[in-house]
């Protein structure tokens, strides 16, 4: 009885989170261009999508920026966590405070202030400036998810490795890094997601003719969102969901690829 | 691995100096000057004007309510999820992150399609002969939009904190005669405080500064402080006033940071 | 376990390589035989086919960028973050750019199609913001009016005053932008929509506050979908949307209100620091060619000032459409926005905030 109630509760929350996505998927099959009317079923928008070079390029830009910025942010953020762990308490809390700023500041303020920065530094606007900005707002997500792992770290194993004659770098990759990995991976995932979804900061720091999916969607508002966008979002969503389900639910292949994350986690949870 | 690694912090310190501190300095500069570039406090005191003060009050109220709703929805959920096998940890996290892979604007627009007078929910309700739902263009719809968008940020840190609690501690309490409620109040709740703090921060601050949600779901009839700031920057190009008002919001961010520091001494709260 | 981790890393490395190489090919900046031209236009405001045709005919690469509002366009152009050649702002924004010396004078000798194809009356209308027609060449124009659903109202809607009728409480969609909202109230009061008179502005503000309880929502681009879906009976909308919305929902009717309204014109301008001025002239000239203007009209459905293009429209119904091509001489009290200066803008914005926060 109790488990049933629990299941219903979880199901309702999931429904709440996924209902709008269901709507978008339905709209991607809508013959009518407006979201206000059902004009019959069509696959037209999916066909149109693959002929629309602009959208495909925006998709590519979006993925590229998300991937690069979250990778770089993961490296900088992880290194920063290791460094902060050895810092004095006050210095550490100041740095953590600064880390929180881009995450808590209104996007518009971050976006405009970065634009002003690039202008005053004379940096040419383009992919580079978007990348720099995304790295900046991604780092906090990495730090916030690596830091707790850092705390649980057992320093003595690292020291033991050193005592046994291992070089610091070698000891780090053999002993410390595996312990941090779950935190690093979830930080990376979070950063990637945030980068995918950002509009405002990208708008103010992008160069001419460089569009991401978000900036493309916002410019379409004046004339109405093109149903191709619904189609693309649905495709991305279904792809990721399928991958996720395959990896997590297939009974024979439990431990492959992403499954490693699970085992990582299992070994470090108390 | 202490002090020896101090130089490792150099890249991040340099990065945050250039990309966080300097831009922040520019906002402070704009906030404290007028169009001619001379010093003024007008942009800060502007918060006292009737329109701005009300916008701030309404924003505070709505973001507090949505933070509370998020918390009440997320805590039981996180407790249930924390009881699930640890192996599923990443799967659970992804379930809550995945919706964010669809563009924020598209998802919020989809809520319009759901909530409108002739929207999907009302079609379903009338099919079931139930009374219509009329919350589109009201503050309730704004709260719904905020809860929808920020709920994952509450669920994830709570889930993270709760799943870290050693079941042995709970079992020990039970063995010593504590009932469910007592165990919850004395063991589970205190141990999840870092998660609670981080969840509240991650929901409250974005809710306080949001702007698209109020115009798409609230019918633009309530002015939120985020709307005002956004308009000063993008519609009226009064960056000085926009910066001044942002500085006011930063005060709330500071308050939040101080509170977190008090309640969460080790900075353990985390998203994931 | 190690093996799995390696697998994971290798997978991501492979994916990264593919993406990187694809992006690099995608971004290869072939500048075109005859250089390039950088255009900044409204989103979805051109038939993309015409850009390809231009590139083919002239060997000039078009770098095309889009904005959402005049106000978000201005700081990007002003900051010089990107050196654009051409932009397509609206009337009052053009006068602001003229005042701030951001535009370059048009050499009509290099743009023969402009005077040949574009109706003289539109140049005349442009004098409101560009007194000597030195800077702007009209691209699209239209009015702001009322769109109503005839199944949801008791009598035909003809004037702004009906937006204050309590019968239509919770059935009215207003524009969520300062100038358009104040325009409605000022026209209803019989004042100019460019007024800076404190008493007239106060009156308009009070009128808008009085109307607020009746308004279902203040929206910008949502009017279109909400009217098609029958969410509201009456909405304030741009005429360019009228043809499209009527096609989707035949019950909708567009009217220009009796009290008068805003006639807006979006025009091509060449920026002062344009790096490719000659190419910019060729681009504008191309856009003024009748067949190209026709293609754009059919794609975006906003009224074209290109008289020669209108002649080419095959569907008589649209060619003579009162909505797409209203005879403006029939209506009184038509005006075009002018830039009110920083102080004027500030005043309007403060009053609008009072309305919105009320």
Taken in chain order, the helices and strands of chain C follow as HEHEHEHEHHEEHHEHEHEEHHHHH
Tell me the β content of chain A.
Answer: under 5%
How would the global form of chain A be characterised?
Answer: globular
Structural class of chain A: mainly alpha
Give the second-level CATH assignment, the architecture of the domain at 54-227 in chain A.
Answer: Orthogonal Bundle
Q: What is the radius of gyration of chain C?
A: 23 Å
Rg on CA atoms of chain A, Å:
22 Å
What is the C-level CATH assignment of the domain at 54-227 in chain A? Answer: Mainly Alpha
* Gross morphology of chain C: globular
Largest sheet data of chain C: 10 strands, mixed
CATH topology of the largest domain in chain C: D-Maltodextrin-Binding Protein, domain 2
- Give the termini distance of chain A in whole angstroms: 29 Å
Q: Give the helix level of chain C as a range of percent.
A: 40-55%
Beta-strand fraction estimate of chain C: 15-25%
What attributes characterize this protein structure?
heterotrimer, A: 270 residues, mainly alpha, MetI-like fold, 77% helix, globular, disordered C terminus, B: 272 residues, 13 helices
Summarize the model shown:
The complex is a heterotrimer of chains A (270), B (272) and C (358). In chain B, helix 1 packs across helix 13 (239-263), helix 3 packs antiparallel against helix 10 (193-209) and helix 7 runs antiparallel to helix 10 (193-209).
Task: Walk me through the structure.
The complex is a heterotrimer of chains A (270), B (272) and C (358). Chain A is an all-alpha fold and 270 residues long. Chain A has helices spanning 2-27, 44-51, 53-85, 89-104, 107-121, 127-152, 155-163, 168-197, 200-205, 213-219, 227-249, 259-268. In chain A, helix 3 (53-85) packs parallel to helix 6, helix 3 crosses helix 8 and helix 4 crosses helix 6. With 272 residues, chain B is an all-alpha fold. Chain B has a single domain (49-263), classed as MetI-like (MetI-like fold). Helix content of chain B is 71%, strand content 0%. Chain C is α/β, with parallel strands linked by helices and 358 residues long. Chain C starts with a helix and ends with a helix. Residues 1-29 of chain C have low confidence and may be disordered. Chain C has 2 domains: 36-141 and 264-329, D-Maltodextrin-Binding Protein, domain 2 (3-Layer(aba) Sandwich), CATH 3.40.190; 142-262 and 334-357, Periplasmic binding protein-like II (D-Maltodextrin-Binding Protein, domain 2). In chain C, strands 1, 2, 3, 4, 5, 6, 7, 8, 9 and 10 form a 10-stranded mixed sheet that branches. The chains are: A mainly alpha (270), B mainly alpha (272), C alpha/beta (358). Chains in contact: A-B, A-C, B-C.
């Amino acid at each position: 009885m109790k488990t049933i109630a629990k299941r219903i509760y979880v199901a309702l929350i999931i429904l709440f989170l996924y209902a709008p996505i269901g709507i978008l998927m339905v709209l991607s099959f809508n013959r009518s261009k407006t979201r206000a009317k059902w004009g019959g079923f069509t696959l037209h928008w999916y066909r149109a999508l693959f002929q629309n070079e602009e959208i495909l390029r925006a998709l590519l830009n979006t993925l590229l920026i998300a991937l690069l910025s979250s990778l770089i942010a993961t490296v900088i953020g992880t290194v920063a966590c290791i460094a902060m762990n050895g810092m004095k308490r006050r210095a550490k809390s100041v740095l953590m405070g600064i880390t929180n700023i881009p995450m808590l500041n209104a996007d518009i303020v971050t976006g405009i202030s970065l634009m002003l920065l690039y202008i005053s530094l004379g940096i040419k606007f383009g992919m580079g400036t978007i990348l720099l900005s995304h790295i900046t707002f991604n780092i906090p997500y990495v730090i916030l998810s690596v830091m707790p792992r850092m705390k649980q770290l057992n320093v003595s194993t690292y020291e033991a490795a050193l005592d046994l004659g291992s070089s610091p770098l070698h000891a780090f990759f053999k002993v410390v890094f595996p312990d941090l990995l779950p935190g690093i991976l979830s930080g990376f995932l979070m950063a990637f997601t945030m980068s995918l979804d950002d509009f405002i900061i990208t708008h103010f720091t992008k160069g001419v003719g460089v569009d991401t999916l978000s900036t493309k969607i916002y410019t379409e508002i004046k004339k109405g969102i093109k149903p191709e966008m619904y189609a693309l979002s649905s495709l991305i969503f279904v792809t990721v969901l399928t991958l996720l389900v395959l990896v997590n639910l297939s009974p024979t292949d439990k431990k492959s690829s992403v499954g490693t994350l699970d085992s990582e986690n299992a070994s470090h949870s108390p | 691995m202490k002090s020896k690694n101090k130089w490792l912090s150099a890249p991040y310190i340099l990065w945050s100096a250039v990309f966080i501190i300097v831009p922040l300095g520019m906002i402070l500069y704009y906030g404290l000057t007028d169009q001619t570039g001379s010093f003024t406090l007008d942009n800060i005191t502007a918060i006292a004007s009737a329109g701005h003060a009300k916008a701030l009050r309404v924003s505070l109220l709505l973001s507090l309510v949505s933070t509370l709703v998020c918390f009440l929805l997320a805590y039981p959920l996180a407790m249930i999820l924390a009881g699930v096998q640890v192996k599923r940890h990443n799967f659970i996290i992804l379930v809550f992150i995945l919706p964010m892979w669809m563009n924020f604007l598209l998802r919020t627009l989809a809520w319009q399609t759901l909530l409108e007078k002739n929207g999907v929910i009302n079609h379903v309700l009338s099919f079931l002969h139930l009374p219509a739902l009329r919350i589109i263009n009201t503050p309730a719809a704004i709260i719904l939009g905020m809860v929808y968008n920020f709920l994952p940020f509450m669920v994830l840190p709570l889930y993270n904190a709760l799943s870290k609690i050693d079941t042995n501690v709970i079992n020990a309490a039970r063995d010593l005669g504590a009932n469910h409620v007592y165990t919850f109040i004395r063991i589970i709740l205190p141990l999840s405080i870092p998660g609670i703090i981080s969840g509240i921060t991650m929901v409250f601050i974005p809710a306080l500064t949001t702007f698209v949600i109020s115009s798409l779901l609230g019918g633009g009839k309530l002015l939120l402080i985020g709307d005002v700031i956004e308009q000063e920057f993008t519609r009226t190009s009064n960056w000085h006033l926009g910066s001044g008002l942002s500085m006011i919001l930063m005060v709330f961010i500071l308050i939040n940071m101080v509170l977190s520091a008090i309640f969460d001494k080790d900075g353990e709260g985390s998203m994931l | 376990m190690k093996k799995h981790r390696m697998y994971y890393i290798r997978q991501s490395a492979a994916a990264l390589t593919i993406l990187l190489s694809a992006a690099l090919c995608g971004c290869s900046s072939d500048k075109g035989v005859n250089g390039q031209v950088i255009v900044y236009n409204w989103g979805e405001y051109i038939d993309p086919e015409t850009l390809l045709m231009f590139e083919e005919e002239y060997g000039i690469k078009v770098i095309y960028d889009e904005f959402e509002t005049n106000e978000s366009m201005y700081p990007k152009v002003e900051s010089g973050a990107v050196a654009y050649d051409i932009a397509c702002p609206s009337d009052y924004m053009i006068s602001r750019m003229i005042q701030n010396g951001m535009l370059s004078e048009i050499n009509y000798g290099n743009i023969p199609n402009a005077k040949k194809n574009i109706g003289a009356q539109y140049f005349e209308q442009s004098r409101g913001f560009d007194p000597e027609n030195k800077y702007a060449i009209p691209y699209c124009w239209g009015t702001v009016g009322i769109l109503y659903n005839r199944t949801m109202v008791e009598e035909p809607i003809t004037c702004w005053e009906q937006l204050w009728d309590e019968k239509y409480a919770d059935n009215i969609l207003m524009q969520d932008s300062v100038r358009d909202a104040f325009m409605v109230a000022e026209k209803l009061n019989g004042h100019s929509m460019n007024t800076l008179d404190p008493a007239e502005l106060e009156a308009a503000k009070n009128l808008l506050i009085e109307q607020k309880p009746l308004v279902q929502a203040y929206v910008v681009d949502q009017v279109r979908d909400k009217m098609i879906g029958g969410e509201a009976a009456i909405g304030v909308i741009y005429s360019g949307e009228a043809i499209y919305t009527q096609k989707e929902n035949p019950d909708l009717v567009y009217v220009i209100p009796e009290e008068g309204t805003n006639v807006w014109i979006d025009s091509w301008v060449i920026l002062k620091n344009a790096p490719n001025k000659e190419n910019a002239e060729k681009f504008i000239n191309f856009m003024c060619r009748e067949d190209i203007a026709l293609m754009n009209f059919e794609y975006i459905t906003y009224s074209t000032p290109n008289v020669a293009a209108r002649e080419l429209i095959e569907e008589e119904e649209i060619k003579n459409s009162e909505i797409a091509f209203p005879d403006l001489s029939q209506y009184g009290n038509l005006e075009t926005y002018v830039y009110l200066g920083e102080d004027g803008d500030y005043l309007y914005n403060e009053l609008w905030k009072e309305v919105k926060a009320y």
